[in-house]
Amino acid sequence: MANIKSQIKRNRQNEARRLRNKATRSELKTRRKAAVTQADAGVETAADALRQAIKRIDMAAAKGVIHKNKAARDKSRLMARITRGAD
Length: 87
Prior knowledge:
Number of domains: 1
Number of helices: 3
Helix content: over 70%
CATH architecture: Up-down Bundle
CATH topology: Methane Monooxygenase Hydroxylase, Chain G, domain 1
Distance between the termini: 57 Å
């Protein structure tokens, strides 16, 4: 345990951020999975699910939860997987 006041506060801040980032990452996984399963099933709302997944990925990158290159990679892989499934 830290003895310095500023480090105690920093630990509290880091924990709060960790929990917030964890929730965001979990939501990203859920959105990606929903988009892929709906596209595979051929549901008409697949395009909307894809749009929501990409929106959440962009928001996470903007907030610094994930790196911008990871966001670009995830979006690219998601689009490739869904368009390949449509063929």
